[in-house]
C-alpha cells in the first residue's frame, strides 16, 4: 500500500546513489550469505568525557569484510540491508554480539562502560524487538544499564506515539536511548522534549566547521543549552582536532567522540588504550 511504499522509499536515503547500480545488486545478493559466512565484525569507538578525556562509553560500529571487495562501509550496506529485510537478522546479530562483547570486556578486562548499539528504524519498529533486546542481555548476562541504543528521528516517521511507548518500555527495562545524528534531516527541537531519551548526539556536520561557521556554532550552543535544561546529556560526534575539542568544552558539551581521540577499532585494540584520551595531548 501507499504508506508502506512511502516508508520504504524514505529508507533509501543514504543508499540512493547505490540503489540501482550493478554494485548494489551484487552487494544486496552477497548480504544474504555474509552472516552465515561470518563476514561481519563489530568495531568499537570510545566516547570520552569532554573535560578529562576519560572513556565513558563505546559505540559499536559494524564492518563488513567482503571476500572480494574488502571492507565495505555501513553507510553503503546498511541501507541495502534495510531494502532487503536482511537488517532484521543482521540487527539481531549486532545486538547479541555487542552484549557479549560488553559482558566480556567487563568480566575479563574490567572495562565497565555502556556499549551503544545503532538500531535501524525498521528493526526498532518491528514486533518482537523488545524481546530480542531482552534475550540478548539475558544470554550475555549483561546488566541493562550497560546497553544503550542509538536511534535517529526516523523512528518517529510512522507515528511519534508508538516510538515514545517503545522508548518508555526500554527505559523500564533499564536501557537508555540516545537520539543519534541530531540536527540533520527533519530534526525538530520538540523531539528532545517529547522523546523519553537521555542523550542527544550532535551530528558531525555541525562540528566540522564549528570554529569558522558562526551559524553552526550557534546551533550547537543552542542545542547544548536546551538539552541541559531538559536534563539530557550531549555528545558531539566527529571531533578531529584539538580546536574542536576545546570549543566544545567551552560550550559545556558533556561527551565527545571522534578520530581525535580514537578511531573505531576491534575490541582487542580497545583494551590496549589508556583510560584517558588523547594520551599524548594535555587537556
Ligand atoms: P553513526 O551512528 O552516526 O556513527 C558515527 C560514524 O561517524 C561512524 O561511521 C564513525 O566511524 C564515524 N566517525 C567517528 N568519528 C569520526 C571523525 O572524527 N571523523 C569522521 N569523518 N568520521 C567519524 P561508520 O562506522 O562508517 O558508520 C556510519 C553509519 O552507519 C553510522 O553512523 C550508523 O548510522 C550506521 N551504522 C554503523 N554501524 C551500524 C550498526 O551496527 N547498525 C546499524 N543499524 N547502523 C550502523
Ligand atoms: Mg550512532
Ligand atoms: Mg551519529
Ligand atoms: Mg550517521
UniProtKB/TrEMBL annotation:
Q: Where is the EAL domain?
A: 24-278
Protein name per its UniProtKB record: GGDEF and EAL domain-containing protein
Which organism's genome codes for this protein?
A: Halomonas marinisediminis
Q: List the top taxonomic levels of the source.
A: Bacteria, Pseudomonadati, Pseudomonadota, Gammaproteobacteria, Oceanospirillales
The full protein's residues present here are: 569 to 851 of 851
